[in-house]
Design goal:
about 600 residues; two-stranded parallel sheet; mainly alpha; two-stranded antiparallel sheet; disordered N terminus
Length: about 600
Amino acid sequence: MMGVGAENKTESTSSKLTLQQLEEKVEVELGNDGATRLSENGRETWGRRLEFVLASVGYAVGLGNVWRFPYLCYRSGGGAFLIPYLIMLFLCGIPLLFMEFTVGQYTRLGPVHSLAKICPLFKGVGLATVVISYVLCTYYNVLMTWALYYLLHSFSPSLPWQSCNNTWNAVGNCSTGFPGNATHLKSASQQFFDHKVLEITSGIEHAGGIRWELFGLLVLAWAIVYFCIFKGVKSTGKVVYFTATFPYFILFALLINNVQLPGAKDGILFFLMPKWSKLLEVQVWVNAAAQIFNSIGISFGSMISMASYNKFNNNILRDTYIVSLANSATSIVAGFVIFSAIGYMAHIHNLPVDDIATDGPGLVFVVYPEVFSTMPISQLWAPLFFIMLLCLGLDSQFAMVEVAVTFIMDGFGKKVLQVFKRKELIVLAVCSVGFLLGIPHITRGGIYVFQLMDHYTAVVSLMFLAFFEVLAITLIFGVRRLSVMVEKMLGKKPNLFFRVCWQYLSPMLVLGILISSIVQYTPARYGKSYTYPMWAEGVGWFISLFSIIWIPLGALHELWTTEGSLLQRLKKSITPTIDLESVSQEPSGESIVLFAAA
């Protein structure tokens, strides 16, 4: 159970008070400002529904919307890609997000304990979601570190990445624009990123020591995360009012500015021009489904965790549509913003758009800084852009860290509180460990570690995890039981569309993505030329297996500890322990007493 950080002086005789007196006492001590409330089982809840929606939108709308979707759209058929993308959104994204919201809100537990109740055989799936989210957050915050570095340098009298007259530039192969086909040249912004920000070495085998500037900024990034979440949903719910909305002001401001630049029209047409023949390629449809899956954040456990702090009767169907559609709309708007700027750069340097278009960190830390260096009032746009990146990243970071905190509090809350005394110290411990695990990424060879982790965590592990989560909930737990959960919360069963998607379409799509990921597996690379040594590939596979090994281990543990023959054990292991017959919607006196005493 998560605390709220409020002092509570309930006497030991509180258990003798009436239920009404207990409720009044807790309400007085928590305050009446609506910041934090109790759910029916004594669990902390969002103060307002809007806070949950903003937190979910903030988590779903991340850096991938800015650097991944536009490039993927352009590479997969331009405007034609929107057809498979929207189809996958409605057949896979929306139904599975609704599924995760249902599980979290009904059980009022994080992913580990909710999935253990739904399908004991696959209880390891929940633990795997915690592991993969926590591993991801350890290197995701490195992106925030880079954004902070660029933000601080964007206040310089002249942007430091716009010229070749700096101590870090290799003057012989430095270009003040994009080098195009001159492969021996690097742009000034590329050299700033490589030689100033990263001080990059020749490979992962050469760590090169810690970049102390980045070390300090990594401390700052984790401090920001901590102070935004240390009070649980009480603090996060307030922070997201800014972090989830501010990026939209900047995106639309950039859009208005960019479409007026010369060459912007060419970039937008390049982004949207339909290539209908691409629709016949299976990989385009797989790309669309994978983008939906990764962008919304299904199977990371974050959506289940955040929904677990909802009130029992919250309208999660409405929230599902808001989060899903806002996420996709943001991706499309970001595509216009990015490619209008790329079109402008192609016009300035008289290069094809294809020579400038890229994805990943290179887009936001190399290409876009170069764009700002030639824009009017660049000293204004550069800081705003990097503040936007910070907001986009922090929202996602909040949710991923919260998964680990929720797991600890749900499973070991009483024991851990005996040691740490306050929940705030538990959050501090989680953030501190995340910081320590992030240190290898801010060495001079850290970019290679970053790329390796991202490839084997976000690409290889995720689809295995997603498949088993969908298998456990929609096929073993079953659509009928899932529909009962929805009916008890919303007063009506999900319509035929959701039931068909849960039963047939979504599992098949996830299986298809998994098979495609296996068949088309390629080793991790950095840039166009660097390939990792065999020992690094082995480390990558270890990281991947470490996050998914909990699924078979959990199944073996369940079968081992269950009594009976193998068939009896298997039958018991797929029988849910969650109560679908009677759900008390009244606060229990015991829950309130326990919460008040925490």
